[in-house]
Every structure is written in structure tokens, then in C-alpha cells.
Amino acid sequence: MKVTSVISGYFKLDGGAMFGVVPKKLWQKLNPPDADNLCTWSMRSILIETGNRKILVDTGIGNKQSEKFRKMFYPHGNSVIDSFREMAIDPREITDVFLTHFHFDHVGGALKFDENGKIIPTFPNATYWSNSIHYDWAFDPNPREEASFLRENFVPLKEQGLLQMIDVQKDDLLWMDDINIRFVNGHTMAMMLLDLPIDSNKRMWYGADLIPSRWHIRRPYVLSYDVQPLYTLDEKERLLSHLVNSGDLLFFEHDPEMECAEISKDDRNRFVIKKHGPLEEMVK
Ligand SMILES: [Zn+2]
User: Fold this and answer.
1) Is the pTM above the cut of 0.90?
2) Could you report the per-residue pLDDT of 160-179, keeping only the tens digit for each?
3) Which of 88, 205, 224, 280 is the residue whose CA sits 20 to 30 A from 6?
4) What's the CATH class of domain 2-283?
């Protein structure tokens, strides 16, 4: 199995929303905001090559959104398609697209407009993976998440018969080829994390929006977006404790610089970064 980090863009989100109850006095030193209080975040996908599959995990914002939307979130940098072009990967080679959840910064790039303005899959030969608990949750969203679940980003996947639903379970689920899925409910309902081998004796977790950046390994750093923040606390504690004990890597989807890290605890029982770097170097 080969796992590669793929930038699917950068965007801006309000620092207060991203750092939750943590005072600006503290977080502004970590990810300095602009005059509108917006901080820059990455959208970082992974490409998993296993057997004859090429699996893309999350897709970034894509380019279907209006000028008004772009002025709100400032998408910039390489899209996943730009990154694939640089990597000499044709979107037609992608066999599977795994979507952790349907917030626009994760699923927007799954579909695009064709020249007639019709919505078509960005990866025409791929099976797209989600689960029906999350689909139903996103299709009829609560007012807190309404602005994050844009129907044009995921409903056509179902209408066009491209979506494969994973059975949500309480326990971790073996998905395929030694790749496990964990279902978590703090950020949104039935978000899916991945736990996968990156070489013969090392594994990595794709943290999605449970632990979107290096700063979110600290316990109080929970997104204001989360629908059940106390669940997030438990889900973070469980994952981070496992990472400390196992030495597995944690991959950050939204950290503007840090791709992945090993986690340890300091003498005050706080989770801290033990070692970090680009995925390529951490595998060695
Ligand atoms: Zn996100």
C-alpha cells in the first residue's frame, strides 16, 4: 500500500469558529488571523494506492461555488485536480473516493460542472463512499450546519448512482485491504476516520475534522462547528491515547503547514507533538 499526501487547496475560516472556547489572546499566536479574523487552513487529501485501486480521501472545495461564497472563504492554491496534474495522475484513474463527511471543504471537489453547466463527477470512474446516516443528516440539515452542507455537492452523487453506503457500526470497521473506518459523532453525525498501514510496521490515522490541525490535539481546542462537543472530547481522548501508545501517525487535513505527526504526553498529561514532518519523510 502506498499513501501520498495531496493538497486539495487552502481556504480561510473564522479563527473563533476553529478554536472554539479558546480565547483569541491565545490562538492568535498560533494561526495569526487577518483583519477579518480569518485564519488560513489547508485542505489536505490523501491518495491510497492498493492492489489496482487508487483511493482518494476527501476532495477539497472544488469550483462550483459562487463569487459570494469565494469572497467568504477565499479558496486558493492547488485544487486536487491541479495537484494530480503535477503528480501525472489522470482523474479517470481514481477508482474510489472516500468522503469523511459532506461539509463543503471535504466534498466540494467530488463533482464539477461540465461545459453545459451540468453537474458531473470529477472522477468519472470512481465509486464514491459515504454512509446513509450521514447522508440523511446532511440532506435535512440542522440550522447550525446548513451553511456547510450544500446539496449540489453530494445529492447528485446519489441521484447519479455513484454513491456506495458503508454500514455504520459502533466499533471500527474493516473496510478493505487492512484499512479500518472509525465512526465519530462529535463534529457531525457519522463522520468517518481512516486507520491505515503506511508501511509494514507503521499505521496512520486520517483525523478529518476530529483533530483538524496540530493545535487541536489540546483538549479544550474543539471546533465551534461541532454539533456534540462533549462527544468530540471523548473521541479525541480515545484516539490520542491510542496514538501515544501505538506510535501511529496522525494526519492533519486542515493544518496550514504540518502534514502529520507522532503524539506523546508531557509531564502535565497534555498531548503534545513528539515528531512531525511531511508524510513522505515520516514513512522513512
Ligand atoms: Zn473541514
Assistant:
1) yes
2) 999 999 999 999 999 999 99
3) 224
4) alpha beta
